[in-house]
């Protein structure tokens, strides 16, 4: 049975403790965790995590909004995701000036770390900055550094047309994810493209993680289509966690694994005020020691 952590909670715990996401992931790996569920990041998320930087004159002149990326591959991935999800968008990703000019330009405007790969996003920022685009590079790096299995948490969106579904699934496969646990209230492709989602998942060798009791719209159709490439997942919602004790959480996950053929325990963290918030690892360690993990 896999013990899978929530990627966004690993980032939250990193902020609370001052430890890096890699250090947090390694701590939980030692405690018995086996996987990390990585969510998609928006442009706002990428800026907040320091993966991209927004040009400082952006609030003053909306048409001049520009993003700088330190990593060319991430810049290209974001641009591809934007163009696939929003076919009408026009981005300028090439500049005529040399990299020396870009570095000087970034320094002049006070960017923390001069970054060499910019693109202009202009007036689109306010419209699309909170749309989920790519699997979060910070969460991926933490999982890979800790040797944790990668699961992808993909949301369904109005832009989820066939090309977008294929891009999302192929991107998950490329970073090493083999398990999909869909995010929020719908599975990817609901409701008119569920057969297409299942076909693409099979083509790429991806496994469907069905979250029991979550009642995601479209899950019945996808379960029928992926019945032989499916793992049962049990988790406790983030809204329910604050009302539970560690003993209750461990008991529920153990019972699910032993009585209902659960193969993935989606293990949320205890993000509560206490003297040592890294005690969040204790219920993970207890699950492992009581032989949930195999």
Fold and architecture overview:
This protein is α/β, with parallel strands linked by helices and 294 residues long. The chain is 41% helix and 16% strand. The chain has 12 helices and 11 strands. The strands form 2 sheets. A 7-stranded parallel barrel has the order 1-2-7-8-9-10-11, surrounded by 5 helices. It has a 3-stranded antiparallel beta sheet with strand order 3-4-5. Strand 9, helix 10 (219-225) and strand 10 form a beta-alpha-beta unit. Helix 1 crosses helix 2. 39% of the residues are buried.
Write the layout of secondary structure elements.
Layout: E1 2-6, H1 7-17, H2 21-31, E2 35-41, H3 43-48, E3 52-54, E4 66-69, H4 72-85, H5 99-108, E5 117-120, H6 125-128, E6 134-135, H7 137-146, E7 149-153, H8 162-174, E8 179-180, H9 194-204, E9 207-211, H10 219-225, E10 230-235, H11 246-259, E11 264-267, H12 281-289
Parallel strand pairs: 1-2, 1-11, 2-7, 7-8, 8-9, 9-10, 10-11
Antiparallel strand pairs: 2-6, 3-4, 4-5
Helix pairs in contact: 1-2, 2-7, 2-12, 8-9, 11-12
The biggest sheet amounts to:
7 strands, parallel, barrel
- Give the strand tally: 11
Distance linking N and C termini: 5 Å
Radius of gyration: 20 Å
Query: Which of globular, elongated, flat, extended, rod-shaped describes the shape?
Result: globular
Order of helices and strands: EHHEHEEHHEHEHEHEHEHEHEH
The portion of residues assigned to helices is: 40-55%
Low-confidence stretches: 96-106, 108-114
Strand numbers in spatial order across the main sheet: 1-2-7-8-9-10-11
Structural class: alpha/beta
* pLDDT averaged residue by residue: 86
How much beta, percentage-wise? 15-25%
Q: Tally the helices.
A: 12
